[in-house]
Every structure is written in structure tokens, then in C-alpha cells.
Amino acid sequence: MKRKLMLLLTCLFVGIGLVTAQTQKVTGVVISEEDGQPVVGASVLVKGTTVGTITDIDGKFTLSNVPSSAKTLQVSYIGMSTQDV
């Protein structure tokens, strides 16, 4: 009985740990400040991680599995200055 109770409690704590370690999905559009046009192929990176992507032909991007603790995106493109958002 004691062994079953310990197993149940262990499973409960592991389950709670998995639920609290959630990730989120981030989407957006990168637009040039100079002419208001979308930036094709800009690099978008979650600062402090290896999670990143590039923008599509409309300047849109989607980042999956972004840690909930992430606060800053780093956007860069050749010939333009890197921006932290």
C-alpha cells in the first residue's frame, strides 16, 4: 500500500512539473522602417536560446516552442542594424 501511494505521488509531481514547463507560439511581421515594406529573409531569434526562424515573402514569421520565460526577440538582416524587440 505504501509503495502504491509513493508511486501515485511521484506520478502526480512529475505531471505537475510537465504542465508548468509550458511553451508558447509567437507570430509576427517584420517591416522596414524606411519604406514600410516587409523584410523577406530576416532572421528572428529568441534571445538567449537557439529557437529561431526566418521571415517569408510577406515578412511574416512563426516561432514554435518558445519558452514562457523568453522576453526578447532579436531581429537581424544583412545591411540593416539588429533590433531587440
Characterise the protein shown here.
The protein has a 4-stranded antiparallel sheet, with no helix packed on it. The chain is about 20% helix and about 35% strand. It is built from 1 helix and 6 strands; from the N terminus they run αββββββ. The protein has one helix at about 1-20; strands spanning about 25-30, 45, 50-55, 60-65, 75, 85. It has one domain. With about 80 residues, it is α+β, with helices and mostly antiparallel strands. β5 and β6 form a beta hairpin. It is elongated.
Short summary:
Helices cover 22% and strands 33% of the residues.
List keywords for this structure.
alpha+beta; 22% helix; 1 helix; single chain; two-stranded antiparallel sheet; elongated; 4-stranded antiparallel β-sheet; 85 residues
Range of strand content: 25-35%
- Helix percent reads 10-25%
Poorly predicted sequence stretches spanning 5 or more consecutive residues? none
| Number of spatially distinct domains | 1
Order of helices and strands: HEEEEEE
Count of helical stretches: 1
In whole angstroms, the N-to-C terminal distance is: 54 Å
What is the gyration radius calculated from CA atoms? 20 Å
Number of strands: 6
Mean pLDDT: 81
User: What's the main sheet like?
Assistant: 4 strands, antiparallel
| Form type | elongated
Look at the helices and sheets and give the structural class: alpha+beta
Give the strand order, joined by hyphens, for the main sheet. Answer: 3-2-5-6
